[in-house]
Design brief:
Strand content: 35-45%
CATH class of the largest domain: Mainly Beta
CATH architecture of the largest domain: Beta Barrel
Number of helices: 1
Strand order of the largest sheet: 4-5-6-8-7
Radius of gyration: 15 Å
Helix content: under 10%
Bound molecules: zinc ion
Largest sheet: 5 strands, mixed, barrel
CATH topology of the largest domain: OB fold (Dihydrolipoamide Acetyltransferase, E2P)
Number of domains: 2
Structural class: mainly beta
Distance between the termini: 32 Å
């Protein structure tokens, strides 16, 4: 078996829970322990009520393409072909930057329904990627 070439995520004290969940095949987000606001990317303080109490919320992994690009220059590291980089609007109301897989660029549309999968990275981690779901 060959080692995945996709670069490993960089874990920080704020983001480690997110990447560790991805390695288990779970999509999660930070939820405020006081007001319940979801936030992504994870951060030390709630952007709505400034609470420092944080919880982990399991997400459905379903959403839609909000916007997307194909980066051509400079060539992305770890990809034979440039990936489709998409901003995904999750059904829970937060957005995250990810890749679309299994779809030709001339088939990608804003509003296209997608479901999460996980792509292995170097170092034994995984990152969320999205595939067309309908
Ligand atoms: Zn809050």
């Amino acid at each position: 078996m060959t080692e995945p070439v996709r670069p490993a995520p960089v874990l920080t004290p704020d983001t480690a829970f997110f990447w560790e969940a991805c390695a288990r095949g779970e999509l999660v987000a930070q939820r405020c322990g006081d007001c319940g606001e979801l936030a992504h990317p994870p951060r030390p303080m709630c952007p709505r009520c400034h609470s420092l109490r944080r919880e982990i919320a399991r997400l459905s992994g379903r959403g839609e393409v909000y916007s997307w690009i194909v980066p051509r220059h400079p060539a992305p590291i770890g990809f034979a072909e440039p990936p489709v980089v998409a901003l995904i609007q999750l059904d829970e109301g937060i957005r995250l930057v990810s890749n679309l897989i299994g779809v030709a660029t001339d088939q990608v549309r804003n509003g296209m329904r997608v479901t999460v999968e996980f792509a292995a990275t170097a170092g034994g981690y995984a990152v969320p990627v999205f595939r067309r779901s309908s």
